[in-house]
Amino acid sequence: MARARLFASLCGLVFLLNLARIIFAPLLDVFIGEFAIGEATAGLIVTLAWVGSASLRLPTGWLLTKVPRHSVVIGSGVILAVASGITATAMTVPQLMAGAFLMGIASGVYFVAANPLLSELYPARIGRVMGIHGASSQTAAVVAAPFVALTLVIDWRLSLWAIAVGAAVITAYTWFAARGTDMPRAGRADRDFVAGALSEWRLVVTALVIVGAASFTWQGLFNFYELYMQSKGLSDRAAGAMLTIVFAAGVPAFYFSGDLADRFPHVPYLLGIVGAFAASLLALTLVEGLVALAAISGIVGFVIHAMFPATDTYLLDTLPDSTRGSTYAVFSSAWMLTQALGSYVLGLFIERGYSYDSVFASAALFLGTTVVVLVLLERTGRLPS
Questions:
Q1: Is residue 82 left, alpha or beta, with left meaning phi > 0 and alpha meaning psi from -120 to 50?
Q2: What is the DSSP string of 300-329?
Q3: pLDDT digits 0-9 by tens, 22-39
Q4: How many other C-beta atoms lie within 10 A of the C-beta of residue 225?
Q5: What are phi and psi of 184, to 5 degrees?
Q6: Rg (the chain; Cα; Å)
């Protein structure tokens, strides 16, 4: 029961941390009007939240060799509460940017510490726990826009104050729950960050090869999804609804995929997900019409979000106790940086005159070819598992 209470508190905390990364996108119009800034400056605010999320993942991995995982998780909640308060009181653009960056830092610190902690709290059900935890995080992506719209009736700052107060309350409960929980001893063997990460480089590279290109493509896809749907003839409102479908499909995907990740061999399961994503992405480029696009959007959203708990389960279940935290921090940092480039590269192709359909079809074919090669390597026992 003590571990269940701690797990429940982490699910609440991860909801707020992911909401903190996503909430800036629906607030951009407000920032443009409130602070008299242009689209480029407004976009930089969003970028800073994601840069912050990636920036301290490696240092956090080192910190985990010195400090218990649950202490770092509680620290991330404190950072979120303070950072959200700073952002909510912002009177200048630099203060707003600093707040967004700090809110992003909180999420990066949290994920690097919390995912290994959860895998050690429930070593026999890593996939299921990752799935439930991920579904809590994904729910934030679904409710972010309606939540902001609701708070705008009063004041845009209310949304940020709600995150600050919620983070303070849940962090306090997490501290209380952690005090009453018999923490696992597995992570205490992980005391040499550099040596630990280097010893598992083959596993890190393998995971990045399997899921790196898919997550890179996904970043470009979802950030331009509304514009892509508009290029297929949908209205602004219908295009927004398609993106909502993509995110909403991710909630059950996390839950079911995490459960399946416990049942199936990790590498074949991951390759199957990436292959299904390639097929669904190719289908998306071929269909037209509201109903067909809605159906394929749901499939794309379900498949790609299934990849995330499966990836975490592969790493956390395969890594030994002595290197789990260090190696996961290295992987998480590299994976985040890989994903972040997707939108920029897609934008370059679109600016040079390529259509969305041609770019995404090419990406789907490349992913399919990669999966075929990796399946052959896996069948010959050349991939770590």
A1: alpha
A2: HHHHHHHHHHHHHHHHHHHS-TTTHHHHHH
A3: 888 788 778 888 898 887
A4: 23
A5: -65, 150
A6: 20
Cα–Cα distance, 253 to 259 (Å, whole number): 10
d(CA 100, CA 87): 7
Q: Rounded distance, CA 303 to CA 222, Å?
A: 13
Report CA dihedral (375, 376, 381, 384) to the nearest 10 degrees: -40
- Tokens, residue 141: 């992506």
- pLDDT score, position 385: 66
The residue among 96, 205, 211 whose CA lies nearest residue 156 is 96
Average pLDDT over residues 297-302: 96
pLDDT tens by residue, 115-143: 999 999 999 889 999 999 999 999 998 89
pTM above 0.85, yes or no: yes
| 300-353 pLDDT tens trace | 999 999 999 999 999 999 998 888 988 999 999 889 888 877 877 888 888 888
From residue 220, how far is each of 104, 177, 227, 235 by CA, in Å? 20, 39, 11, 21
